[in-house]
């Protein structure tokens, strides 16, 4: 195959490395200047992805363009109309993820039990709303390009902390940028993601379930980073899938969507409450799912593109769980002073990785310099290390056993990935009927 990756920060780098190892040709375009040294010496980086489209076309059905972000869906649709095989999303997908109020309306129209959500086009109106209806809320800016750290989850019953945060955002909001945001009622329960690949007509099966750990520090303290680690499985997802993703297949088909889709939810005694769409390859989700996908990326690419449909729309997956842990260096999750603090640090594996370990090390912001693997990129998101097992404790043990071999100056990661699932979330989901009794 020939694969052209298009993104801002080379977020799918470890996927491209897997394709190269399997003998495929890969080129990538990276729009963010600070990220252009990511995977230097490992992947071919091109200056302009548009100039490589003929290279993809020349491969016929073996040519693919992969878009990493949910911000260029219109271009993806245009390329598809021109006969190029494109994976990643669509203009509809961009809107489902970026326009949070629209995403919630689509969920509501599909019959999902959405959390009460309130859309605003000014911070003043949002603050007036909280004063009228004091409560705990979750603030999220609408639109593409907002970092996870911009989300705020209210902790105070009367909403005083959300009011203070909204006032801060209002004062710092860039002049000329439209104010678009949503407030969501904060729900108590178990946070669960439901994800699947969509081939333009239907979702491939099985769907996956994931339990993310979004905050920087153990015990769920600190910044919302996106993800510091995740538990995933391809088993027992049918019921949650039917209540969520399964309801929007028709909408995605009309929107010419081809790629991975995830809905993040809160599950409680009353049922499942969808929160938001992710309409692209999720990271580190794609890397953590990879060890459970026995068919490999080539088969999945061809199936999602509709070039080589899978029997009954199903692909082979391993049982059990995979646990993935994100390994970072300072100043992650912020880019300030990264070049001074941590760029170019040596990465060593001692004792050396065994053959079985290699498939569980998923590189992020790294590069090769004079034969030495070093930190690179824009923020310090160095790698993801995974482990699989029949149970979450088994998978955790395998992941952390491999992490013990990774040596980077000032290396940082969470030690508690999966503990919340083991200590209570799994039992509650079993009690409420979403997971089977062991």
Describe this structure in words.
This protein is α+β, with helices and mostly antiparallel strands and 438 residues long. It has three domains: 2-96, Rossmann fold, CATH 3.40.50.20; 116-185, 2-Layer Sandwich (Dna Ligase, domain 1); 190-431, D-amino Acid Aminotransferase, Chain A, domain 1 (2-Layer Sandwich), CATH 3.30.470. 28% of the residues lie in helices and 27% in strands. The protein has 15 helices and 21 strands. The strands form five sheets. The protein has an eight-stranded antiparallel sheet, sandwiched between helices. It has a five-stranded parallel sheet with strand order 3-2-1-4-5. α4 crosses α5. The radius of gyration is 21 Å and the shape is globular. It starts with a strand and ends in a 7-residue tail after the last helix. The mean pLDDT is 94.
- Find the count of extended strands (DSSP E, 2+ residues): 21
Give the number of domains: 3
CATH topology of the largest domain: D-amino Acid Aminotransferase, Chain A, domain 1
CATH class of the largest domain: Alpha Beta
- Identify low-pLDDT runs: none
Helix proportion: 25-40%
Strand content: 25-35%
Biggest sheet, in brief?
8 strands, antiparallel
Q: What is the CATH homologous superfamily assignment of the largest domain?
A: ATP-grasp fold, B domain
């Amino acid at each position: 195959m020939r694969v052209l990756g298009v993104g801002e920060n080379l977020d799918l780098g470890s996927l491209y490395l897997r394709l190269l190892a399997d003998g495929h040709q890969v080129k990538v375009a990276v729009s963010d200047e600070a990220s252009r040294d990511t995977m230097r010496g490992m992947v071919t980086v091109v200056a302009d992805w548009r100039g490589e489209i003929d290279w993809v076309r020349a491969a016929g059905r073996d040519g693919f363009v992969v878009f990493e972000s949910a911000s260029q869906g219109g271009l993806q649709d245009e390329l598809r109309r021109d006969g190029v095989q494109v994976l990643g999303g669509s203009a509809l997908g961009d809107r489902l993820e970026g326009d949070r109020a629209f995403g919630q309306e689509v969920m509501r129209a599909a019959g999902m039990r959405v959390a009460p959500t309130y859309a605003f086009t000014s911070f003043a109106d949002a603050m007036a709303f909280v004063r009228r209806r004091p409560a705990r809320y979750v603030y999220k800016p609408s639109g593409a390009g907002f970092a996870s750290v911009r989300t705020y989850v209210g902790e105070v019953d009367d909403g005083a902390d959300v009011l203070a945060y909204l006032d801060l955002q209002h004062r710092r909001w860039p002049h000329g940028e439209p104010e678009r945001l949503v407030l969501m009622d904060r729900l108590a329960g178990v946070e669960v993601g439901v994800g699947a690949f969509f081939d333009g007509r239907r979702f491939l099966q099985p769907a996956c379930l994931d339990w993310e750990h979004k905050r920087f520090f153990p015990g769920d303290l600190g910044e919302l980073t996106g993800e510091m680690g995740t538990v995933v499985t391809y088993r027992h997802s049918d019921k949650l899938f039917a209540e969520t993703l399964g309801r929007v297949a028709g909408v995605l088909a009309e929107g010419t969507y081809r790629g991975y889709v995830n809905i993040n939810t809160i599950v409680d005694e009353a049922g499942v409450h969808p929160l938001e769409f992710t309409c692209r390859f999720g990271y580190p989700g794609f890397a953590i799912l990879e060890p459970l996908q026995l068919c490999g990326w080539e088969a999945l690419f061809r199936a999602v593109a509709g070039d080589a449909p899978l029997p009954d729309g199903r692909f082979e997956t391993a049982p059990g769980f995979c646990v993935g842990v994100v390994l970072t260096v300072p100043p992650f999750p912020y880019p300030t002073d990264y070049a001074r603090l941590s760029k170019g640090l040596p990465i060593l594996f001692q004792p050396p990785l065994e053959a079985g370990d290699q498939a569980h090390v998923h590189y992020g912001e790294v590069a090769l310099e004079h034969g030495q693997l070093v930190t690179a990129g824009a923020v310090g998101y160095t790698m993801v290390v995974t482990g699989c097992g029949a149970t979450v404790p088994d998978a955790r043990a395998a992941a952390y056993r491999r992490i013990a071999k990774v040596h980077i100056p000032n290396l940082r990661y969470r030690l508690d990935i999966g503990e919340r699932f083991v200590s209570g979330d799994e039992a509650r989901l079993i009690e409420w009927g979403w997971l089977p009794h062991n």
